[in-house]
Amino acid sequence: xxxxxxxxxxxxxxxxxxxxxxxxxxxxxxxxxxxxxxxxxxxxxxxxxxxxxxxxxxxxxxxxxxxxxxxxxxxxxxxxxxxxxxxxxxxxxxxxxxxxxxxxxxxxxxxxxxxxxxxxxxxxxxxxxxxxxxxxxxxxxxxxxxxxxxxxxxxxxxxxxxxxxxxxxxxxxxxxxxxxxxxxxxxxxxxxxxxxxxxxxxxxxxxxxxxxxxxxxxxxxxxxxxxxxxxxxxxxxxxxxxxxxxxxxxxxxxxxxxxxxxxxxxxxxxxxxxxxxxxxxxxxxxxxxxxxxxxxxxxxxxxx
Length: 304
Prior knowledge:
Strand order of the largest sheet: 1-2
Distance between the termini: 56 Å
Number of strands: 2
Structural class: mainly alpha
CATH superfamily: Rhodopsin 7-helix transmembrane proteins
Shape: globular
Number of helices: 12
Strand content: under 5%
Radius of gyration: 21 Å
CATH architecture: Up-down Bundle
């Protein structure tokens, strides 16, 4: 028993034995949430890809892929979360990735919102739909911003290798300096502010063109329910960025672990919010005969 206590104390230095047991339990929950979130998002992507009755845009696929990246980034330390410190190079790379993850997912959410706004605007104003070039720019924008953040984070880590370390919870590696967490939080905050502006523009556009929208949405696959889902989901990137910054300032291992658990829930939220739309659920229940509405549903790449 004494050896077990000593071993656990080495894993979670500074905690009481009760806190150490709690930390290990929270670590197991954290790993489960990351795996579960990854699987939910992956299943949603596969169903959308292979089901003839499900039609999504390239922007939507790009957005969902960003959450797979998010899960992999935060789960990269699996197997090295307790015991000896992980290799310095692995720790540095993972620390850089977790600071790029919230930027990528928040930018991905903004890209979906922007794409939907442009579709609505083009219909109500009788303008041309977004061109393939514009859609491609919207699609790759999150990855450009995420890559730039990753490069900056790697640069900071390579310049100061000692700041990359496994945090007190053992869940993942982070930087002991506040510079990169602050950069990530600021970028996410700015992205969220832009999201809020597009949410307001979308709401105003719908208000002014409500009669036209009621006729339009049944033909183009953008329903009010989808807009509400996206609006609700848009707050999650802000939560992710805030939790990433908060985790740096959390002193207690148990409290820090709870903060990390809140972050780990986000991919599952993405999977449930966008994976429980009617056409996705119908695609999941492949053994049931197709309804007539599935056959006649328009194949429009503008569906987000």
